[in-house]
Amino acid sequence: MTHEGPGYACQIYDGTMNSDLYQHILDTTLRETMEYYDMDWSTTYFQHHVNYIDDWPAQSPDLYPIEHPWHHLKLKLSLYDKKAKGVHELWERVEKGWNSFDKEVCRRYIDTMPARIKAAIDAEGGSTKY
User: Fold this and answer.
1) Residues in CB range of 101: below 8 A, 6 or more apart
2) Domain range spanning residue 17?
């Protein structure tokens, strides 16, 4: 998900998502984007400025912009009268639902991140209104 829209969904054909598969997806799908931008600055920034990452709240869906569209995608999938007949039909529904998020919806999720982070800090990692 980006400020310009939902991006594309990545179908996992076989097996379960694990760290190796996740790394493979990042390597193969994001490499071109990462190379387009000078990513050295972000690595350096995170190494020097984001030293609190180990203290990230364990249960913090409000701090992950993807959690909200994912929730709404699941709601969209639940509106179908019948269950998908197989993995291919399910994937078509997922893709259709995912692609229905326009850039304004994505921007709303992303643009509220500073307020979400502030609320999480104020709540000392506890529940927030988000």
Assistant:
1) 1, 5, 6, 69, 72
2) 11-51
Total Cβ atoms within 10 A of residue 127: 11
Count of domains forming the chain: 2
CA 46 to chain centre: 19
8 residue type, one letter: Y
- The tens place of each residue's pLDDT in the chain, 130 residues long, gives 788 888 878 787 777 888 888 777 777 776 665 555 555 545 555 565 555 555 556 666 667 767 888 888 999 999 999 999 998 999 999 999 999 988 898 888 888 888 888 888 888 877 788 7
Same domain, 70 and 120: yes
Same domain, 94 and 65: yes
Specify the DSSP class assigned to residue 10: -
